[in-house]
Each structure stands twice: as C-alpha cells, then as structure tokens.
Design brief:
About 30% of the residues lie in helices and about 30% in strands. The protein contains ten helices and 17 strands. The strands form three sheets. Strands 1, 2, 8, 9, 10, 11 and 17 form a seven-stranded mixed beta sheet that branches. Strands 6-5-13-14-15-12-16 form a seven-stranded mixed beta sheet, with helices on both faces. Strands 3-7-4 form a three-stranded antiparallel beta sheet. α1 packs parallel to α2 and α1 packs across α5. The chain is globular, with a radius of gyration of 21 Å. The N and C termini lie far apart (about 50 Å). The protein binds flavin-adenine dinucleotide. Flavin-adenine dinucleotide binds next to α1, β3 and β16.
Length: about 375
Amino acid sequence: MPKNHYDYIIIGNGLAGLQLALAFNNDSHFTNKRIALIDPSTKTSNDKTWSFWEQNTGLWEDIIHQKWSKATIFASNKTIDLKLNPYSYKTIRAIDFYSHALAILKQNKNITFITETVNSVTDDSIITVNTNKNSYTANHVFDSRIANDALSRLDQYTTITQHFKGWIIKTNTDAFDPDTITMMDYRLKDGDQTTFNYVLPFTKREALVEFTYFTEHTVEEHVYDSYIKKYIKDFLKIEDYQIIETEMGQIPMTNFPFEQSNTKNITKIGTAGGWVKGSTGYSFKLTEKKVATIIANIKANSTPSTDLFTAKYKFYDKIFLKVLKDENHKGEWIFEKFYSKNSIQTMFRFLDEDSSFKEELQIMTSLFSWSFIKAFIKTL
Ligand SMILES: Cc1cc2nc3c(=O)[nH]c(=O)nc-3n(C[C@H](O)[C@H](O)[C@H](O)COP(=O)(O)OP(=O)(O)OC[C@H]3O[C@@H](n4cnc5c(N)ncnc54)[C@H](O)[C@@H]3O)c2cc1C
C-alpha cells in the first residue's frame, strides 16, 4: 500500500472526528485499517464546553466536568422546577475530551495524526485529499469542513442562529446551588426576541453564566456582555465576582440538507454533516448515535451515510424552526409550554430522536396553537 494511502481519512479532529476515530479504535473490525486524522489544530486549548443529558453512566464518565440532577426554567411569570431523574445534565470541557481522545488514539500504531490544512477533496476512482503540504488518498473520507457553498445558501432554508457569550465567574462567598442548572431564564430578554440566560453552577462559588439568542441576526460582543452583567447583578444578586474565562459561539439551527453532500466515498460529519439538531443546537449525544450508525453501515458493507437521518424528526425540527423564525417573540411561550406540560422522559426522548408516536403526539398537544398549525401547513 502506498505510504500516503489510508483506508479512512478523517478531516477534522473536533467532536465528530474524534468520536468517530475512537469508535474505529474500539472496534476489532477496524484493527488492521490505516486511519489518518488531518487537522491544522493540535487541540491543546479549551475552545468550548459541551453539555448534554443522558441516563446512567455514559461513554465519557471519566472526563465529565460536572453533572446535575435538577434544572429550573424561569418564564416571566412562572418558575418550572424539573427533577431530571433518570437523566443527568452533564458537562465536558472540550480540552478534557481532546486530551482523553488523543491519549487513546496515539497508542494505536495504525492511526496517524497529520497537522495540515485540507484545501480540497476530489472524488474520482480513488479519493484524494489535498492539504497545504501534501496529497493523500483513501478508500473513504469523513469530512468535518463546512462547505462555503453550504454557508452561503443557509438563508435559502429555514435558518436561525443560536449565538451566545458566557462568562465563568468566581465569587468570594457562596452564591450558587451546585445541584441545579438554570436551563433557560426569560426574565431578562433583549426586546421580545427569543433570548435567555443559562447558568451552569460548577461549585457554590463558580458558574458559567451565558446570554443566548435564537435569532436570525447576531449582535456585537458588548451586547452579550451588558446582558450578562445585568443578569448577574439584578437576578443572581451578585455584586462581587471575577471573570475567570469566557466562551462565545454561533451554532446554525437550520433544515439545510447537509446530508445531500454525502456520496458513496465521502461522508460529511459533525456540523458539516447536519449532525447538530436543527431545533436545539445540541449535537454531542447525536454524534454518538451517528457514529454508531456509520460503524454498523461499514461493517454491513453499506454506504457509511445510509440511514443517518429520520425524516419525521427533520419534519418536526423544520416546523419548530419555522415558528421561531416567523414569530421569534414566541420562544418563551414555546419553551414554557414544552417544559411545563411534558415529563422529562418524554421531552428528552423526543429531543434525542428516540420517541414513540404517542410521545410525539403528547409534545404536539402541549404546543398546540395557531402558530404551530400555520407552520405545519407551510412545511407540508
Ligand atoms: C462554543 C460552542 C459551544 C457548544 N456547546 C454545545 C453543547 O453544550 N452541547 C452540544 O451538544 N453542542 C454544542 N455545540 C454544538 C456542537 O456540538 C459543536 O459545534 C461541535 O464541536 C461540532 O462538532 P464538529 O466536529 O462538527 O466541529 P468541531 O468540533 O468544531 O471540529 C471541526 C474540526 O475541523 C477542523 N478543520 C476545519 N477546517 C479544516 C481544514 N480545512 N482542514 C482540516 N481540518 C479542518 C477544525 O480545526 C476542528 O478541529 C457548541 C458549539 C459551539 C461553537
């Protein structure tokens, strides 16, 4: 086999690329496969925090930074306290995930890390990956680059952006309940857009406080800062604190058909593959599922991207996005109904795309309104 040829090339050592590489590494079917991961970044800094819910212990228990058993949603006139049992809400710092994955993968002599930038991939009889320094070939390429073409066409679909900034603050006296997250707090909003505060308390004296928008347009950085500052003062009632870290991000919430770029030889993965759930912006747990499907497809000699998506969930996501895009002021109403009228199991199973039709009906009933009927008809 030529030196620069691999069975699989994974472009991008991010969430999707590393979860996929770990799955290859953990399955004896792939023991003799040569795998290359190409990324210009060596992943030595903490670029984000991933949160997700799951039952019992999961795959990442050793690197969980914190987990919580309770959540609160504050609507303007109502407080909803949720006991998450049998789920927990968990957080992983990206740097812990990268270090954990790299430590395991670097022990595998069939896995090669290449610190280069991919410029193009050509899909002829053999697939060629061209970087800023070299060319490599592969039997199959998994690509986490978001195509420029996709970015420029997002607005032709039902798209809004989840954009946010968070401060990790440290206080001198006890200020937080380390067992309860604030999932959404609508008491402080930017006008009547869908905006909310999110708080992850790591200890009694340390928490991530974030201001989030689900809107079409982004805002300048100082706008998030002013809302976080006001929220800490007026709602958390904290005067004295230090900012020890900040996090900012944008996540597309869209029904863009990313999956149409998949071919027999190239599979788009992660955000670039449409693995971020359109209606929530979450992807950590869905990535596990997509990776498991890819592994099963390869072992069954099917095209890796077969059955990665379920049409009914794409349909539900599109209706939800349509309501939020057309009637952005309805966000608080939607989430208040969603969280107050359904059980934890029903909500999380629905968001995890594991729900039964009965549970979906229950969710639809809880959100029944003219806004959803209109969006349903337009989506049809
Ligand atoms: C700040 C932030 C916070 C988030 N928080 C959560 C959360 O709490 N829970 C959740 O479920 N989801 C969250 N998400 C959404 C989603 O889970 C993440 O965006 C996730 O990292 C997506 O995984 P990915 O592999 O597609 O992208 P990434 O993790 O960003 O990885 C992409 C990789 O591709 C590499 N790359 C890019 N271009 C090239 C190139 N030309 N050649 C080679 N390599 C290249 C990059 O260097 C990077 O390492 C968050 C997103 C952001 C931005």
